[in-house]
Amino acid sequence: NAGVTQTPKFQVLKTGQSMTLQCAQDMNHEYMSWYRQDPGMGLRLIHYSVGAGITDQGEVPNGYNVSRSTTEDFPLRLLSAAPSQTSVYFCASSYIGASYEQYFGPGTRLTVT
Amino acid sequence: GQQVMQIPQYQHVQEGEDFTTYCNSSTTLSNIQWYKQRPGGHPVFLIQLVKSGEVKKQKRLTFQFGEAKKNSSLHITATQTTDVGTYFCAGSAYNAGNMLTFGGGTRLMVKP
User: How confident is the model at residue A97 (pLDDT cuts 50, 70, 90)?
Assistant: First the structure.
């Protein structure tokens, strides 16, 4: 099993550009989520999904879109990048249910200039 | 909304000293999870606590969940250089499903 994979590992964008961060998992997990990590602020939930076709907003959803067309993939789209979106982005997945641990991908380090 | 506070933000210790990080939630939690993130890495699950007053041990690590299920702690006995990293608590509120609210983390640095 590859676990949770994310691409790209690093990305530099100019303000106003758009891009998609890819996330895939091969553990047949129903729950997938996106977090951003900023220094001293822990991980903040952006969007999450409890299954294919179902997504919902987390704590900091503005400026981001998601879709879940398959169980395996959960891409995160930045519509018009802003410097405030400079961060490390982690995708995570787990089985449904609060008692399940979340598995994190290796992260994407995004810089918006 | 739910808030999870973690202290201290940073901790420098000499190898062999003990270390403790504390986690406090603004609301009662259904469970709390702890994760470790090595420098440059991603969070890795350590443990989950579910019951009021629960205490769990993993070798030199001791995890506690408060009686009111609003606070938790992680204690490391006799730190080693391999303990270096950031430790996060993450709480799950009742009826929140899989949604976790993370604390800000405690960064542990160990001097050999």
Answer: confident
Give the Cα separation of A80 and A69 in Å (integer): 22
Rounded Cα gap, residues B19 and B85, in angstroms: 12
Strands B106-111, B10-14: pairing is parallel
Contact status of A5 with chain B (Cβ, < 8 Å): no
User: What pLDDT score does A107 carry?
Assistant: 98
Kindly report the backbone phi and psi dihedral angles of residue A84, in degrees, each rounded to the nearest multiple of 5, phi listed first: -70, -10
Distance CA B94, CA B100 (A): 11
Pairs across A and B, CB distance < 8 A: 65
Contact B42 A90 (CB under 8 A): yes
| Residues B74 and B87 sit within 8 Å (Cβ to Cβ) | yes
Which residues from chain A sit within 8 angstroms of residue B89, using beta carbons?
none
* Rounded-to-integer distance, Cα B19 and Cα A112, Å: 37
